[in-house]
Amino acid sequence: xxxxxxxxxxxxxxxxxxxxxxxxxxxxxxxxxxxxxxxxxxxxxxxxxxxxxxxxxxxxxxxxxxxxxxxxxxxxxxxxxxxxxxxxxxxxxxxxxxxxxxxxxxxxxxxxxxxxxxxxxxxxxxxxxxxxxxxxxxxxxxxxxxxxxxxxxxxxxxxxxxxxxxxxxxxxxxxxxxxxxxxxxxxxxxxxxxxxxxxxxxxxxxxxxxxxxxxxxxxxxxxxxxxxxxxxxxxxxxxxxxxxxxxxxxxxxxxxxxxxxxxxxxxxxxxxxxxxxxxxxxxxxxxxxxxxxxxxxxxxxxxxxxxxxxxxx
Length: 313
Description:
This protein is an alpha+beta fold. The chain has helices at 91-105, 131-137, 165-177, 201-211, 223-226, 236-245, 258-269, and strands at 5-7, 26-27, 30-38, 53-57, 60-62, 64-69, 75-82, 111-117, 121-128, 147-150, 158-161, 183-190, 213-219, 249-251, 273-278, 288-295, 301-303, 307-309. The strands form four sheets. It has a seven-stranded mixed β-sheet, with helices on both faces. Strands 2, 3, 6, 15 and 17 form a five-stranded antiparallel β-sheet that branches. The protein has a four-stranded antiparallel β-sheet with strand order 5-4-16-18, with no helix packed on it.
């Protein structure tokens, strides 16, 4: 596999062979869920125990089989960086901050990869534990302008593919993370605008669920690139993808730099919990199950995925 590859979209050949039966980390009939807990001030709470929580699936209470704090469990990180023209002036800042993040956050057993996306998605660095290789790959972050790409059956039908955010998330989860184990996260740096993806937001979210990946959105945009034309620029899609999969959105603002955001992400990923339970639903039909983890202390807020896909028999 070459160091740089074009990820052409949903129709592209897989980068890695995948097990079609693999879904959210299910060991026999155990469902594992990684989550974070915050107090009413928004501070992380890293000292809780198994008896501090309840698990509900489709409205039915479940018995927790195991519970661990996952601060040292290996991480697999996918860094996805928006390099569409509207982000051009931010790329150098993203390059420096991401390099520093990789140098500080990666431990011995951690892995990461880097994908840039604009009119197309490009794998800049495949899975590696080397901060040096990851840093070198960030030199490949450059503006990827909009292109015209055929869709549908006819040769005339086209759509502008300027920022294929949903496609990039889908591909990262389906082709790079599904076959990995332990904790998996997607860090998505973007202004939140999708233009021309073949996949819809629901398909991107489903892909993350099936690979057991948590999406963290980093909302970062250059107001000068849009001027007064801010219509459609929001963190709504980022928030949807993040909150559905157990993550959240970080906003880069005047008082919160990208370096600050990466430090907050590091703290969160090192202060998580994982619990497992055996579902009382015996059906293995591949359907989606709604999931809720509740803290018995009502002043605490649990940040967890909103469901999972049961493995087929």
